[in-house]
Amino acid sequence: MASALFILNGPNLNRLGTREPDVYGHTTLGDIERMCRETAEDIGFDIEFRQTNFEGMLVDWIQEAGDVAQGLIINPAAYTHTSVAIRDAITTADIPTVEVHLSNIHARDAFRHHSYVSPVAYGVICGFGATGYRLAIEALSEVIRA
Length: 146
Ligand code: CA2
Description:
Oligomer: single chain
Structural class: alpha/beta
Order of helices and strands: EHHEHEHEEH
Bound molecules: ligand CA2
CATH architecture: 3-Layer(aba) Sandwich
CATH superfamily: Dehydroquinase, class II
């Protein structure tokens, strides 16, 4: 069976492509999912791609990823800057995790400069828009295969 990656997306990312195109571009989350599926298929990984606006749902899905997946890619969106629960879930899942952000959070408001997730992530990619998800899949596949 192919290795599985969970790709989880947090609050408001379902609105991508419809508002704030100056910050987040015109790409929709559906476009990003299609790109992730193509990338993963090319390198022989299955993906589970999900979005929720609820913190507890993200915690449940991270726990599920820890049980069934080989790696996790997560854009926790605003919860990046607030959620100890998501950080704890990632620590407990104990699978290599890449934190992804479309925008460069360090070039934005000061409150976005701190991430609760980064210290427990294997790596962090930010500022490359949707391309960051593709880079995360490629990087994570190398970590898992190493
Ligand atoms: O740059 C990223 O990917 C973020 O995780 C996006 C979050 C933000 O809170 C983080 O600081 C950085 C916000 C996602 C909101 O997405 C929207 C999409 C379209 C229109 C409005 C919001």
